[in-house]
Structure formats: C-alpha cells, structure tokens
Amino acid sequence: MNDTCSTLHVNLITVHAYVFYSLYVVNGNLLMNLTGESSVIRAINARGGMYMFGRMLPIWAVILLLFIIQDAVAWHVIPVIVIAVMSEVVRAIFKYNRMGDVIGTVIMTFSSFGYYGQIWFNRNYTYECAVEEMPAGYADGLMAASPMWSLIVVIIVGVVLSVVISNLTAKLFKLEK
Q1: Residue 119: CA atoms inside 13 Å, Cβ hemisphere, count?
Q2: Which of 174 and 65 is assigned the larger pLDDT?
Q3: How far apart are CA 20 and CA 172, in angstroms?
Q4: What is the pTM for the complete model shown?
C-alpha cells in the first residue's frame, strides 16, 4: 500500500469514527425521545439496532472502504463477510441477549483477520509485500517478530480485550445485562 493509500486509510477510519459518534452518541437522546425508550441502547434496538440503516450496511461499508483503499482482495473481503455472519448467527442463537452480544463482539474483533492473518498463513506473500513496500529490514523484522506461537497470543489478547471493552461499554452506557 503506498503513502496515498495509507493516508486515505487513516482518513477513512477517522470518518468512520466520526459517523459512529454522530449517529449513536450525539443523537442518542433524540433516538430516546423518538422511540420513548429509557436508554440509548433500547432506542437503537427499537430502530433495528446497529442495522437501522440496513441489515448488512456495516459489512458493506467495510467492503466499500477496502475498495476505496485498493485492498479489496479475497484475503480481506471474505473474512469480513464470514466473521460478520458468524457474529450475527451467534447473537441470534443467544436471542440477542447480553451474552450473545459479548460473544458476537469477540467474534467481530477478528473481522480484519484477513489483514494480519496473512503473517501466519501466507508468509511468503507477506514477506514479498513487506520487502517491496516497506523500508529495508522491515520484512525480516516482521518475520522474526511473528512466529506461529504468537498467533495464539494475538487471539488470547483479542478475546480478553473484547470482553473487557464490551463490559466497560455496557457499564458506561448502562446497557442491559
């Protein structure tokens, strides 16, 4: 990915955060008033949850961003779709209760796995790209810093942080348990 794509990628992430903040945080009181609900999360759920603008909108938005930054390859797109569907299936199995939300959050944590999963599952390609696109020595450093056992560490840290952040979010926004 060249510097223009990297800058665009950072800008798109910033725009995504701003849109999330505008829709869900700033307009939370408005949604509560419109729906007559007593909490922001209930108001959002009354309007269709995070999918109030279309059930698959978040997934298609991520895929659109991948096309914009010229990274819409199978390694990136397929995991986003598969992991999003898995997360939604788990949430449905748990009837959209708090436990289902936590497990769904853990699953969604790895939605960008196609980006970094190649370090372990497509090492030659990752190495070639790193040699081509990054400063000298970066590729060798990346390979040395990512032995197969480090994948287990990444998964454990991802799961733990997902659960902690999910619970912290529930506490901060007074979500139902």
Answers
A1: 21
A2: 65
A3: 16
A4: 0.60
